[in-house]
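Checklist before submission:
- one chain only
- standard amino acids only
- sequence pasted in full

Submission:
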Amino acid sequence: MVTLLQIIRALLASPEGSSPIQAEVARIAAATDDHSAAGIAAAVNRLIKSGELAAGSRLPTVRALASALGISPTTVNEAWRSLVRIGSVRTHGRNGSFVTDGLHAGWPSRFWRIAGTAGEFAIDLSAGVPDPALLPPLPELTPGGRRGPGLSGYLDPPVLPQLERMIRSAWREVHEPERVTVVDGSLDAVDRVLTSVLRLGDRVLVENPTFPPFLDMLELIGAQPVAVGIDSEGMRPDALRDALASNQPTVLLLQPRAHNPTGASMSRARAADLAAVLRADAPSTIVVEDDHAGPVAAAEPVSLAAHLPERTVSIMSFSKAYGPDLRLAAIGGPDELIEPVIARRNLGPAWSSRLLQQLLADMLSDSRCTAAIDTARTVYAQRRQALVDALAERGIEVLAGDGFNLWLPVAGERDALVVLATQGIGAAPGRPFLAAPLDSDYLRITTAGLSVSDAGSIADALASAARNRPHALRR
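Returned file contents:
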C-alpha cells in the first residue's frame, strides 16, 4: 500500500507539487485504500459528504492524482466519470473538475431554459413540439381480432420482428445497419449511445447551435463539447476540418435533417464531404446522427452511414410523427457499437413496450396513418415557409430549412423576449443552444402550431422584437 509519506514525496517531486491543490491530492490519496476506479470514487465521495472536500473545491488533475497513487490516469478518469454521474462532481473540460453543492446535481439546466415557460403564453412559439391536430389516428391495437404481442415475454426479442423489418425498410435507401434496436425516444437513444462510448474528458464535436439537451448530457457525462459551424446544409466541412486540427474527438454528434433550432438539412453531397474529412483526419471518431423529425421531415433522409457504415450510429424517432406518447426511436449501426447499448439496457428496462411497438407497426402499415403523415409533412412545411416569407418581407432573413423551428436573429436576446412577452408571445432563448458564442443573439421560434393566415401578424411581432421595438400584435 502507498504510504502517506510516499505520497508527499511523490508530490514534492512532481511538477504539480507546488500547485494550490496539492493538499487535495494528499487528502484524497491518504483516504484511498482501494486504488480501483470504484475505490477512488468512493473515497472522494466520502470526503465530500464529510465536508473535507467543500462545495466548489477544485479537484486535482487526473495526472496529478494518478502520479500520487502510482496508477494509470485511465483509472482516475473512470473514477471522475462515476462521480460526475452521481452528481458529486461537475467538470468544465480544460478548466478542471469541481465538487458540486449537491443542490442541482444532474439538473438539465439548458433544457429547462427552453422548456420551462411552455404553456404560459397565449401564443407559444417556444415549445418545439408537434401540433396534436396533425398526429395520425390511433388504430386498434389488435385490429380484426388479431392477437397482439404476448404480455409475459421476458426472454422475447427486445424488438418485434415485424417492426424491425419496417425500420430496416425505411433505412434501406440510405444504408443497411448491421444491428437494430428500439428505445424510448430519440433523446433516450442519444443518451444511451453517448453513455456507452464516452469517458470523462472525451471531446465531442457538435453543431453550433445545437439541441440544448445534448449539451446537458455531455456536461453530466463529463465530456467536452467542441463547436463546429453550420450553414444551410448543416455542419460545414471547413469548420469540421478546423475543429479536427486541434482536437481528437471521440464522437461527432449531429442532426442530419430538420436541424433544431435552424431547420438545416444535409444534402447527399454534404454528407459525402463530411465523411471524406472524417476519413482523412479522424479515422476513429464515431458518428452519432439524431434524425429526430423522422417521417415528418420534408428533406430526404441522408446519413454518413452511406460512407462510414463501420462507425456511424443512426437514430430515427417516430415520436414527432406518430405521437410523443409512443416514445419510440430506432437505433441502427455496427454491432460493436449497438450491442453494448443493448447489453447495458438489459440491466434496466431491457425493452420498450411491445404493445407500443405493435401499435407503431400497425400505424406504419395503416393507409390512414400514412396519409395523415403525408398531410402533416406538407402542412408543417407550409407553416414554416409562410413565416419565413413574411419575415423576409419585413427585412429579416432566416433559413428556409425544414422541420418545426427557425432561428431568428435579434439585436438582444433578453430584450426581444421581453418585447414578445408583453404581447403574450413566448419564444425560446438562443443561448442554451450554443456550444460557443456566435456573432449575434438569436431566438428559437417554433412554427409547428402556427396557421398560415397568422404568419403576417406574427412576423410583425417578431420583427419588432428582433429590433427591440414594441409592436401591437394584430389578432
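Reviewer check: The chain has three domains: 4-99, 110-133+369-466, 159-365.
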